[in-house]
Specification:
By secondary structure, the protein is mainly α. It is built from 1 helix and no strands. It has one domain (about 1-30). The longest helix is centred in the middle third of the chain and has 30 residues, at about 1-30.
Length: about 30
C-alpha cells in the first residue's frame, strides 16, 4: 500500500509540474 501511494504521489507531482510548465508557456505566449 505504501509503495502504491508513493508511486501515485510521484506521478501526481510530475503531472502537476508538466501542467505548470504548460501554463507558463501559454501565459508567456499570450503576453507577447
Amino acid at each position: 500500500d505504501e509503495a502504491v501511494n508513493f508511486i501515485a504521489f510521484k506521478w501526481a507531482e510530475m503531472i502537476q509540474g508538466r501542467l505548470e510548465k504548460s501554463l507558463q508557456v501559454i501565459v508567456f505566449r499570450i503576453n507577447e
